[in-house]
């Protein structure tokens, strides 16, 4: 299978831009939807930066400028091409925001598969009252061009043919697919957040320094980076909102440590603000 010819991505932040990058590199034409012209320009800049980095590393099979010629932007979902085959949203983890996006997209693109890049929200809940038979979780990992996994999140109302189609598209991107039942935190966020929160609690309790906790997992368990640096990379605010959601769904073992709350309140959100558990 090949990737679809026409793809739309809603949201041009870190994840959205990475998703745009991989579809452009695989041959799709991509429309990036953003709320206004300023954000659209930032999103395109993010895609450019990612493609340029890949080009410098010799990872692109065509010049970045050529791939970018297949990228366009819209500031209104009603302006998406009606024949778009796949629409992926990568906006903040707010269920009402995601639902309103899919409502507009479902009306505009009657044939499109609707995919959410949510890392923890219930796909069935996002799909409630919408055409759920074409709405799936398609969870990418940061940095999208580098991470080999796509986690497909499958709710009970989704036909097998749709799952098979989306699996084929993800594999055409060169990704390996795991299929996970729609449940809180799916497979990856549930485990990733559990380890991340425990690392923060250990730092809070003075078990070891941030550097030593991370080095322990990097060299002892061959993680590419330790759980605290990874939390900085993902964003402390993102981690906190997933933890709060999982605590509600799965109980107190996902309760966020006070240290995480304090850092988020101080605006120490990790790499993107220059300070998290480490200085960047
Ligand atoms: N295209 C674009 N950018 C590329 C690239 C490519 N083909 N190859 C590398 N890069 C980027 C890297 O992302 C990195 O970006 P920054 O400059 O912004 O840091 C930079 O080029 C350097 O890459 P290197 O491979 O030289 O650096 P490295 O060896 O330190 O690897 C890393 C960086 C890939 C991030 C690696 O440390 C790693 O794999 N870390 C773990 C990442 C991880 O666990 N991600 C999952 C996060 S959880 C998630 O995403 C899900 C969720 O729901 C929150």
What does this structure look like?
Residues 185-280 form the 3-hydroxyacyl-CoA dehydrogenase C-terminal domain. It comes from Actinokineospora diospyrosa. Belongs to the 3-hydroxyacyl-CoA dehydrogenase family. The structure is a single chain. The protein is α/β, with parallel strands linked by helices and 280 residues long. The chain contains eleven helices and eight strands. It has helices at residues 14-26, 37-56, 64-68, 95-108, 123-127, 160-172, 188-204, 210-220, 227-234, 236-250, 258-265; strands at 6-10, 29-33, 71-74, 86-89, 113-116, 135-139, 149-154, 176-181. Helix 4 (95-108) links the parallel strand 4 (86-89) and strand 5 (113-116). It starts with 5 loop residues before the first strand and ends in a 15-residue tail after the last helix. The structure holds acetoacetyl-coenzyme A.
